[in-house]
Design goal:
Length: 359
């Protein structure tokens, strides 16, 4: 399909960190097909760091999610101001990778002549589909990277390179290098990056099982770097896991606790330096995969369209008739049967396989 006179493009991804990262190949497809166009990304506050430094993107526009907490009149005025700012930028094309109602309104009110999105069907408000000029039908069984790409591919905007890029500034590398030196991590050490938490706690593994595996890694002489977000719930969970590790063995220098102490970029440096990433379905899992680090991912209620993208990763998941789960944290269920079914021995076997070690 021919698109004429495309000078400015807006890609809308108002989701979470991992979702934004997996949209990177769409920016590459747009850049390869509209090499002279200015390409902007519209993302939620707190997710923009996964795109900073990417040469495919000329501008990152951040939507402040705190607007949602304002009083109605203040929120309305802020929303109107934001929409006017978007319209004033004069975009010729929008690509909505979000699927939500807000993104549909932003896309339409931007004034862009071409507005691409997934066919919403019966989802969202009445008449939503008419806010777009091009609607794509996608296969929701495919990986999210490919689902994103299909939104533009169906209209002739393609790329042969579906890789996910993540760019790290030099200052982040230097800080992690100093941390590694402080903890006597040497080049010949086997380093395992463990990120046991997720912003969605129902995706997390049993604390006792994670502690068992961390202790086992330390017993085998590996350096284990444990990270988590600074969110209180994630910190509390990580603290409990580490306390269980301490109960299993005497704490030593093989365990480096960086929970809540790193930026996204610094966390990425740790993953890049590690021989292996171990964690649950989370943004750090996707970052590690994007950097080419082998990943062992524990998947409970989430669908296979969110598994780590790329080769040499191992996804440990148990078949259940109720998967993928749609209940989230409903009914007070905090630990799913599908996660309890994954045992420490499953993870240890995967570690040995990836690192090519003997039991």
């Amino acid at each position: 399909m021919n698109f004429s006179d495309i000078k400015k493009i807006l890609v809308i991804k108002l989701r979470h960190i991992g979702d934004v990262l997996l949209a990177v190949p769409v920016f590459r497809a747009l850049r390869e097909n509209f090499s002279d166009a200015q390409i902007a990304a519209l993302v939620n506050s707190g997710t923009d760091e996964v795109l900073t430094g990417n040469p495919l993107i000329d501008e990152i526009i951040v939507f402040d999610r705190a607007i949602k907490n304002l009083l109605p009149i203040k929120r309305y005025l802020k929303e109107i101001k934001f929409l006017r700012e978007i319209r004033a930028k004069g975009f010729d094309m929008t690509v909505d990778l979000t699927g939500g109602d807000r993104a549909a309104i932003v896309s339409f009110l931007s004034g862009a002549r071409y507005r691409l999105a997934v066919n919403p069907g019966n989802e969202g408000f009445i008449g939503k589909r008419y806010l777009y000029t091009h609607l794509a039908d996608i296969d929701k069984q495919r990986h999210m990277v490919l689902q994103n790409l299909d939104i533009v591919r169906q209209f002739g905007i393609t790329t042969d390179n579906t890789g996910v890029d993540f760019f790290i500034p030099e200052e982040a590398k230097l800080r992690v290098k100093r941390i590694f030196e402080e903890h006597n991590i040497k080049d010949n050490d086997i380093v395992i990056h463990v990120h046991p938490t997720s912003r969605w706690l129902f995706k997390c593994w049993k604390d006792e099982y994670m502690a068992d595996v961390i202790g086992w890694l330390i017993d085998r002489g590996m350096k284990v770097v444990v990270t988590s977000a600074s969110d209180k719930r994630e910190m509390d969970k990580a603290k409990r896991i580490l306390s269980l590790v301490s109960e299993l063995q005497t704490p030593n220098s093989e365990l480096i606790n960086l929970c809540g102490k790193t930026t996204i970029k610094e966390l990425a440096v740790i993953s890049e330096a590690a021989d292996l990433f171990l964690g649950v379905d989370s943004a750090p899992m996707h970052i590690a995969a994007a950097l080419g680090t082998p990943v062992i991912a524990l998947f409970g209620p989430t669908g296979e369209d969110w598994i780590p993208y790329g080769k040499d990763h191992i996804v440990i998941s148990k078949e259940m008739p109720c998967k993928p789960c749609k209940k989230g944290m409903c009914e007070g269920i905090q630990l799913r049967e599908c996660l309890i079914a994954i045992k420490p021995e499953d993870v240890k076997e995967a570690v040995l396989k990836i690192l090519n070690l003997k039991n």
